[in-house]
Amino acid sequence: MPTHPLLAIARTTGNPVIESETVTFLWQGKTAPHLIDDLHNWDENPQTMQRVGAELWSYSMALAPDTYLEYAFLDPKTRKRVPDPFNPNSIWNGIDAFNHYFYMPRGGPTPLIQPVEGVATGIVTRHKVPTNEYVVGANRIVYLYEPPVKTPVPLVVVYDGADFLKRGKLNIIVDNLIAAKRVRPFAMALVQNGGPARNLEYSCSESTLGFVFECVIPLAQEHLTLTPPGGEPYGVLGASLGGLMAMYTGMRLPQVFGKVLSQSGAFILPEHEFVVVDLVRYAPPPEIDIWMNAGRYEWLLDSNRQMYALLKEKHYKVKYHEYSGGHNHTSWRDDIWRGLEALFR
After folding, report:
1. What is the pLDDT of residue 231?
2. What counts of helices (H) and strands (E) characterise the chain?
3. Is the pLDDT of residue 1 over 60?
4. Of the candidates 45, 35, 22, 12, which has an alpha carbon nearest to the alpha carbon of residue 84?
5. φ and ψ at 176, to 5 degrees?
6. How far apart, in whole angstroms, are the C-alpha atoms of residue 345 and residue 334?
7. Per DSSP, what are the bridge partners of residue 190?
8. For 104-113, how does the pLDDT look when each residue is reduced to its tens digit (9 = 90+)?
């Protein structure tokens, strides 16, 4: 029996098979798993594969030509993931499993994550700072990034800092942007999240603001050469709930954090709006600059579109960008340079 043409391609180039803007996932076996992915909100909306030949199954979708997408196969009986034999590329999803991934032909990792010979590099140091009972635990890990300059610089506080450092290569991205004079130099305090307490700490928490203002900023002042708070605006950035917390930080402490970078912010969940939405809706807009983004294939897209529309309606200084990807650190990593350039040009 002749081999199905798509199967022959998958055996050579891997899953999914890409034809123009159509991608086709293949599975070979007597039965097929479900496909779960960014576009369909993972386990909440598994996709059924269709039989296309003897022990051959497929599922097709259309994607933008520059898309990055993560996916997995799920056994419908055991509800456990099964590896894709046609795609060896996998990445930790940051929660509980590995996802397979791929780029469309016009997509690809940002070149800014590659160290460049001759480019001056900033110094990253690891610190343990007392929490003073503002957040969970007696101490919290904070990484400090000192840019390769001698003059005082503003500070950017990064929520989920360890993820942005290790998975997002943020220090390398900033090194390259500074060297290319695409951003002015700035320092960073990359704050580890509270693990199981992350949801509480990032859900518009006043205690988290206290920890940042009373513990993190003094640590950064001690070890870095910074412009004073209240002078040149500091920045704050985060993704998902961290993006929500970044926006809340700018709203509540605009005298310090005048620049907000929010990626895929979790502002509005089904049947619930976080308090930051009411701050935008009812309070006078503070003097802050906001840059936000969201993926065209993620579940928080509508939330971010609604938040952007509300910010514009209330005359905030805000810019918004949509990328062809989902809710994951790779997408945020590949797009964050746009926000850094917009806020620190």
Report:
1. 82
2. 10, 20
3. no
4. 35
5. -70, -35
6. 18
7. 143, 158
8. 999 999 999 9
Contacts of 63 (CB under 8 A, 6+ apart): 21, 22, 23, 39, 69, 104, 297, 324
Give the three-state DSSP class for 190.
strand
Helices 301-313 & 275-282 angle (0-180, nearest 10): 20
**How far is it, in rounded angstroms, from Cα 151 to Cα 186?**
10
- Check residues 53 and 187 and name the one with the higher pLDDT: 187
∠ Cα 312 314 320 (to 5°): 25
pLDDT of amino acid 2: 61
Q: What is d(CA 331, CA 29) in angstroms, rounded to the nearest whole number? A: 32
Q: Which two tokens stand for residue 135?
A: 């957040």
Q: Are strands 98-103 and 68-74 parallel, antiparallel or unpaired?
A: antiparallel
Q: What pLDDT, in 10s, does the model give residues 235-265?
A: 999 999 999 999 999 999 999 999 999 999 9
Q: Residue 170 has which token pair?
A: 């943020």
Cβ atoms of residues 216 and 142 within 8 Å: yes
Q: What pLDDT shows up at residue 70?
A: 97
**Percentage of the chain modeled with pLDDT above 70:** 99
Query: Kindly report the CA angle at 107 between 106 and 110, in degrees rounded to 5?
Result: 130
Q: Which domains does the chain have, with CATH numbers?
A: 5-103 (2.60.40.10), 111-344 (3.40.50.1820)
Nearest to 163 by CA among 279, 254, 243, 276: 243
- Give dist(CA 273, CA 267) in Å, integer: 6
Question: Which helix H or strand E contains 243, and what residues bound it?
Answer: helix 241-252
Residue 94 has pLDDT above 90, yes or no: no
